[in-house]
Amino acid sequence: MSVSQLRRRFAARFFTGALILFLLAASALLDGENPPAQKYPPTIVFMTDFGLVDDSVALCRGVMYSIMPEVRIVDLTHQVPPFSILDGARFLYGATPYFPTGTVFVVVVDPGVGSSRKAIVAHSKRGQYFVLPDNGLLTLVEQRDGIDAVRVITNSDWMIGGKLSSTFHGRDIFSPVGAHVARGDDWTTAGPEMPVADLVRLHLKTAALDDRGLSATVIAIDGPFGNLITNVDAEDFLKLGYQHGQEIPLTLGGRDFKIPFAKTFSDVPLHHPLLYIDSRGHLALALNQKSFATTYGITPPLALEIPKAK
What we know:
The chain is an alpha+beta fold and about 300 residues long. The chain has helices at about 5-35, 55-65, 85-95, 140-145, 170-185, 235-240, 290-295, and strands spanning about 45-50, 70-75, 105-110, 120-125, 130-135, 145-150, 210, 215-220, 225-235, 245-250, 255-260, 275, 280-285, 300-305. Helix 2 (about 55-65) packs parallel to helix 5 and helix 3 (about 85-95) packs parallel to helix 4.
């Protein structure tokens, strides 16, 4: 082989090696800008009606950290009105769109603790997990996202202690099971499969739009402000054809009202009513700086009907 041939072969190999190194470096840079999801620790979103005056929340978090020290725990709220499954359901409904696939929601609003009600792990069609009592908490999430599988929790290896408290399943069952699921343990080993059709559901009418208008439900009261929260998405409401500033006829629990559609509270006089789209994208009713619920004696759930604009 001549000297010129050797030089050409060496140059070709050098070029190939340099190209490979360049591609590897570029790939590393891209990985740094867009790290794969598995580099981040899993997330548990934790919600209860325990309040914060005692050690209950901390004990549950301690159980989760004992099983998976690196887990991220997001406290959605621990101020769900005591025993209010409906409020727990609507907070859960409002939160799930803001968390990624694989998030584990541990929810303990459990007035039936220690009874025959089931403890379950459910998987939604969005790819999220729910560890909670089977008492209706999943109703709104199921209506929007769908639930494709449910397991009844019976695996004692995933529970805390040999003698379980009959009144603190948040610590003894839901917290450890949530941590096992977040850690990536096979969630189907939590217990036997249960038909999705057998889930306990709240008796809430799904918002429906037809040629006459919208039939929906007031599902909750917004904390101390007394605003009414509905299960109507903004997109469905806007299909009725109303514009900001228009007075909208509606029937609320059998009573007829005419209420203006506004962007914000100050668009109407003090203590006057308004309809608006709330921060979570749902239709809501309020009085400017006064409680709609108290003023009109509203107790959810309550039927709401709005005709199409003429």
